[in-house]
Amino acid sequence: MTAQMTSTPQRSSNLATAEQHGFRPHSDGAFVPVQTRSERFRSVNVDGFAPVTGREHEWKYSPVAVFADLTSGDLDGSRIEVESTIREPQDGADAPGVDVSWIGRDDARIGRAGVPEERAAANAWSSFGEALLVTVTGEDEKTVVVTRHGLGAAPRAAHTVIEAAPNSRGLVVLRGTGDARLSENVEIVVGEGASLTVVALQEWSDDAVHLASHFARLGRDAFLKHIVVSLGGKVVRVNPSTHLAEQGSDVEALGLYFADAGQHLEQQVFVHHDAPHTRSRVTYKGALQGDAARSVWVGDVLIGNAATGTDSYEQNRNLVLTDGTRADSVPNLEIETGDIVGAGHASATGRFDDEQLFYLMARGIPEGEARRLVVRGFLTEIIQKIGSPELEERLNAALEAELQGS
Questions:
Q1: How far apart are CA 297 and CA 238, in angstroms?
Q2: What distances in angstroms separate CA 124 from CA 71, 211, 215, 388, one per listed residue?
Q3: What's the whole-model pTM score?
Q4: I want to staple 208 with a disulfide (CB 3.0 to 4.6 A). Which of 33, 117, 233, 389 is the partner?
């Protein structure tokens, strides 16, 4: 099936039927919200979605006026400039088992992991000309870093496919730097028995806007560690969706973000348990400082009626460093079978732990340094799980630079 033909005929997210789940239309109109995440409308065609107003469930937390050109305007879908570095973590030598190339939009490998659920992703899907393909093969660990830069201020579209062959091992870093107005889709296909880590690293310039939808499909006994790190950019919205499609599949979804004054960092996470004995762990942590710093985290977990033996937990923690910030945190859990190992969710937003601060200051550490130590300890839990010492070191340095302004 080609990318142009891929679509899923489901109820529209804007006009669901009145009888759905027993609900009736409100007195002020025919709108009835879709109650189950899997029932949202999906399409690769931008014309299938109504214009974005900001009142839609998927956009109500977002500054939609800032990126109207990405949701409704024409996008440049030509190749974007990328640099790729392939190496083995142990000695830095070139590693076999990783290939980076370009494929046409009619390639059969496009459209296997997921389909857009909102207009920006559909606009990018309708606009791209070629997709960047990253393939990982072989049982030895290897790392590839793909850096996108020099995108400029014009609205652009991109599409990336990451494929891990059965029983392969690897780490793929997608890094964004410099100026950008980018809407993109990233497809991740993890084959049977494979173990893959994907890091989405946003280090854009201060005025950049980046909207991304990640779709992952996991095979039998496959493992995916998906990490979103958002530090730079004016508006950054990265929404990962993971389909645990076959028995024994396992995802660890992690996120780290640091919102400064006037910065909007958003993540809407979806994990769909669709097979028996699957597992998921979702942990996102963020810090906010400065006037109008804003973070949004929405976590949806759906345990389908065939997903017996599911083990799932999601959590979001936010640390507020100054006045004038706002953190929205919305965990959602849907369970369609009672035969599970466990499922839970948690959310917390708060200021410094005064006892921790007092403990450090009582031992002669100045208040500013004590605050940085507390924040560093709060956030580095995510960095330490990446599995690449070089990348972890660089992110710790970037985090330290952010903390110098706190």
A1: 10
A2: 9, 10, 14, 31
A3: 0.89
A4: 233
